[in-house]
């Protein structure tokens, strides 16, 4: 479950980034967003960010999952799926805890 979703303006406010910077994060897949709500606006999980921008370990994990054929929505779901065998109970919590190698290993397994 994703506790908090951010619109692009929310991301700008939270990180202090400009609109072109936030768009670049999305275009370059530092983070991924999904269209949600009645207006189908792009929203990004708040868990994808640290104080000043995207969680650094996230981009490579997104790349591995995307290369494995996962859609952006599937990537978001996989990162937030409960997994008690990981520190923090999910892949995204593990990335925040510094367990990037284990999360990426599991992401690679998803491609097979």
Please give a quick description of this structure.
Helices cover 47% and strands 13% of the residues. The chain has 112 residues and is of the alpha+beta class.
Give the key terms.
two-stranded antiparallel sheet, 13% strand, alpha+beta, Rv2175c_C, 5 strands, Putative transcriptional regulatory protein, 112 residues, 6 helices
Describe the protein's architecture and organization.
- The protein is of the alpha+beta class and 112 residues long.
- The chain has one domain (5-110).
- Helices cover 47% and strands 13% of the residues.
- The chain contains six helices and five strands.
- It has helices at 8-15, 19-27, 58-67, 72-80, 91-96, 100-110, and strands spanning 5-7, 34-36, 41-45, 49-50, 53-54.
- It has a three-stranded antiparallel sheet with strand order 1-3-2.
- Strand 4 (49-50) and strand 5 (53-54) form a beta hairpin.
- Helix 3 (58-67) runs parallel beside helix 6 (100-110).
- The mean pLDDT is 95.
- Pfam families: Rv2175c_C (PF18367).
- Residues 57-111 form the Rv2175c C-terminal domain.
């Amino acid at each position: 479950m994703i506790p908090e979703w951010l619109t692009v303006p929310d991301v700008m406010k939270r990180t202090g980034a400009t609109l072109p910077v936030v768009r670049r994060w999305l275009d370059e897949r530092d983070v991924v967003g999904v269209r949600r709500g009645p207006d189908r606006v792009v929203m990004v999980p708040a868990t994808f960010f640290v104080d000043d921008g995207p969680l650094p370990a996230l981009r490579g994990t997104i790349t591995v999952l995307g290369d494995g054929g996962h859609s952006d929505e599937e990537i978001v779901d996989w990162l937030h799926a409960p997994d008690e065998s990981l520190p923090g109970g999910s892949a995204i919590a593990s990335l925040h805890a510094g367990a990037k190698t284990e999360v990426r290993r599991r992401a690679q397994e998803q491609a097979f």
